[in-house]
Structure formats: C-alpha cells, structure tokens
Amino acid sequence: MSRTGATILLILVFMARGTSFLFSKTLMQDMSPMSVLAVRFVLAFLILAVLFRKKLLACDRKCLLNGMILGSLYTICMIFEMYGLRLIDTGVSSLIENMAIVLVPLYVAVLTRSLPKPKTMLCAVSAVIGVGFLSLDQGRSVGGGFGILLILLAAMTYAVCILFTENISRTSDPLTIGIIQLGTMGLLSLLISFITGTFEYPQTGSQWGMLLILVLVCSCFGFAFQPLGQKYLPAETAAVLTVVNPLTASVLGTVVANESLTAFKIVGYIIILATLIFYNLKDSPRNN
Fold first, then answer.
1. Count of structural domains within the chain
2. Which of 37, 46, 121, 203 has the fewest CB atoms within 10 Å, i.e. is most exposed?
3. Hey, what long-range contacts does 232-236 have (CB within 8 A, 24 or more apart)?
C-alpha cells in the first residue's frame, strides 16, 4: 500500500471512529458502559474471525501476544472514554481524547531522552489552554470535571496505543493483530460486566441498530484496519490524522444530538482545532 493510500485509509478509519461517540453516548442511556463495549467488540470479533479465519488460524505466538497486549491497552482506553463520555458532551470528549496528537511526540521525546521540538511544546501548551476553556464549560454540569479527567486519561492511554501499534504492525500481520485486539477487548469487557453484575442485552430495535453501526463501521472497519494503515505511516503522522475524529464527533454532537455551543466551548473548540491544524502543517526547510 502506498503512503497516500494509507493516509486515506486512516482518515476514513478516524471518521468512522468519530461517529462512535454519539452512538455510544445514546446507548448508555439504557445500557451500562461495559455492556455496550462487550456486545460491540464480541460481535465485531466474531464477524472478522469468520471473514478472515485463514489469517487467524495462521497467527503465530508473537502475533497473538501483540494483539492481546494491544487489546488490553485499548480496553483501558475505552473504559476511560465510556465513563467520561457519560458525564460530558461528545464533541468535547473527542477533542480532548485526540490530544494524543500532541502526547505521541512528547512520549517519543521521553523514550528517546531528547527534547521535544519547540513546535510540539507550543502545541502542548495551546491544547492545555483549550482544555481549560472546555473544563470551564463542562464543569458547570454535575460530574463534568471528573468527566474531563477521565477523557484526559483516555487520551494518555490512546497515545500509548498509537505508539505500540506502530511498533507491532511492522513485525506482524496488522489485520490479524486488529482482529485479536477486538477479541481481547470483547472478552475483557464481557468479564468485567459479569463481575460487576452490569451485563445486559440491547432491548429495542433502535438499540440493536446503533450497536450494529458500532460493530460494522466503528469496530470492524475502524479498529481492525487502523494497524493496516499505520504499517505504512509513522506514529506521529497517524496522530496528526486523528484531527478527523474530533471534527466528526463535534459536528454530529451539535447537529444530531443538539449539544449546546456556549462561549467557553466555542473558544475551547477553536483553540484545540487550531492547535491540531497548526501541528499538521509541515515545517519550513530552515526549521528542519
């Protein structure tokens, strides 16, 4: 696959993932967060396991282990996301979580024991300011501050997932990893929901419809094909492309879910989106 093809694939992946915030928040009005995750990822795994059973059967020990580790990391990320999403707006949740765009290069700087680029530091400070404005808005609602904290933890975990995905997708089959990842997420979510006594099936046709969209579009396509796209792109490029995710979630939250646009929220949106766009701009030759 060419770099252009991989870029287009990841853009579509992140758009699909962006729609999940709205459907998940709607489903959690009647279902527990862990139930939504369990049904979503178990079904997604079963569908992909049937479609790509030959690849799955040919999986070696290293590929299986990598997929399980990645699935465990994403389960932690999704738990933070779902419980935070119950407390704050979908657009705000997606914007904050996708601060991974700034966290990834900061993690790389720590791992390589090198100073991050001035541009990265500027974007990090700018993103924090943007989150501050969003916190002022969401903090007015019950549990809004705690919701912001949970989504920040989701962003930190998501950045780790992006880095780990880049590392393993170059040594193992990315599609197989994605399938095992989904299976691990489904199994862990199912176990947690049973242990906590919160597991429940969807009860209505609309709930099943939203879950099927989460399964087919957001999970089967969104999660399983991210490792394939990242195989041909560096982690920092993948992090930059995540800007598509919050844009999709924000538009859907405002247009479909009728989420209000306060002055603080608008300022926070502008700052964070401007930060993501600025970070996406290529440095001039003299700065390289």
1. 1
2. 203
3. 232/1, 232/2, 232/3, 232/5, 232/6, 233/3, 233/6, 233/7, 233/10, 234/166, 235/104, 235/108, 235/162, 235/163, 235/165, 235/166, 236/104, 236/105, 236/108
